[in-house]
Amino acid sequence: MRPAPYIFEEPTNLAQAFQNLKHGTPIAGGQNLMAALRMRQINTPCLVSLEKIECFSNDIQITGDAIRIGALTTISELLNCAVITNELPWLHAAASRLGDTQVKNLATVVGNICWSDPRANMSVALLASRAEIKVVNEKLLERSVAIRDFFTGFQKNCLDNELVSSILVPRNSGDAGAYTEFSRQPNDLALVNVCVVNNQKSMVAVTGGTCSTPIVVTLEDPGNVKNGDSTLHRVISKLEDCADQFVSDQFGSSSYKLELAQVLLKRTLLIVREQL
User: Fold this and answer.
1) Which of the four pLDDT bands, split at 50, 70 and 90, describes residue 227?
2) Could you tell me which CATH class the domain 176-275 is placed in?
3) Would you identify the CATH topology of the domain 60-170?
4) 196, 265 contact by CB (below 8 A)
5) Cβ distance 119 to 140 under 8 Å?
6) How far apart are CA 77 and CA 125, in angstroms?
7) Average pLDDT rounded to a whole number, residues 219-224
8) Residues 6+ away with beta carbon under 8 Å from 85
9) Are strands 25-27 and 46-49 parallel, antiparallel or unpaired?
10) 7-49 — its CATH code?
11) Cβ-count burial of 147 within 10 angstroms (0-12 exposed, 13-18 middle, 19+ buried)?
12) What is the 3-state secondary structure (H, E, C) of the chain?
């Protein structure tokens, strides 16, 4: 199926972009968006490319306490960043499982979270990483949004006539984390995925694919994580408290997804324990 007719705009600054966006839809990599347009799941009179906007970049900037991922940074560029590979292996693992080489070369990290699919690899991994989203509006004013407040529903987020300009990921030398997923075939969208990051003061365990948004479980005092049984019991107990939010769909029942999430959490915590 072909998309409905649309106009393609390529603004060079934010003012032009927001003017075009009054009747259009933003696009960077467009891997999810173009598929939805071809299937006529969504329609738009105008696609507004972000590629030439002067203040958006594909840079990954490293500072002493954070990593800033630019609005146009692709999955491949993220994978080629040595600091992320060495310091945030769970983020690297999530990116490595996101599509084939062609998809990785085109899809952007920001686009993956803005699509707001609860199974999106980057969403789950960045939630566990306690990331911060930098958002700019048509008045060119920037604000920060904790990623836990970013997702509001299935393919819905808190953006209100705004664009994501970058993602800020904190650097903590003591962090240990891991990402796992279950999918029907290689490079497919995960049925359920899990990311766990422990920084000794707290642990964040994120489960995607079970509800309309990822489930975030935080243990403020994880205790001795090497005693995996105790930690696993606490995480699963909190996950089960959210079981009434689980959804059944063509990929599985809510009870099946809960069981799958429990298995993945156990595997993920075992990987985290090996890093301590």
Assistant:
1) low
2) alpha beta
3) 3.30.465
4) yes
5) no
6) 16
7) 72
8) 79, 92
9) parallel
10) 3.30.43
11) buried
12) CCCCCCEEECCCCHHHHHHHHCCCEEECCCHHHHHHHHCCCCCCCEEEECCCCCCCCCCEEECCCEEEEECCCEHHHHHCCHHHHHHCHHHHHHHHCCCCHHHHHHCEHHHHHHCCCCCCHHHHHHHHCCCEEEEEECCCCEEEEEHHHCEEECCEECCCCEEEEEEEEECCCCCEEEEEEECCCCCCCCCEEEEEEECCCCEEEEEECCCCCCEEEEECCCCCCCCHHHHHHHHHHHHHCCHHHCCCECCECHHHHHHHHHHHHHHHHHHHHHHC
Measured distance CA(69)–CA(258) in Å, rounded: 32
Residue type for position 180: T
4-44, pLDDT tens digit by residue? 889 999 999 999 999 999 999 999 999 999 999 999 998 99
Please write the tens of the pLDDT for every residue from 156-166: 999 999 999 99
Q: Which sequence spans correspond to the domains of the chain?
A: 7-49, 60-170, 176-275
Read off the tokens for 32: 């999810």
Q: Which residues contact 259 (CB under 8 A, 6 or more apart)?
A: none
Chain segment 105-151, per-residue pLDDT in tens: 999 999 999 999 999 999 999 999 999 999 999 999 999 999 999 99
CB 46 within 8 A of CB 126: no
Q: Residue 234: pLDDT band by 50, 70, 90 thresholds? A: confident
Tokens of residue 97, six digits: 């499982």
Give the C-alpha distances (Å, rounded to integers) separating 246 from 166, 172, 215, 249: 31, 32, 10, 10
Q: What is the pLDDT of residues 47-68, one digit of tens each?
A: 999 999 989 999 999 999 999 9
Q: Which residue has the tokens 């990623």?
A: 147
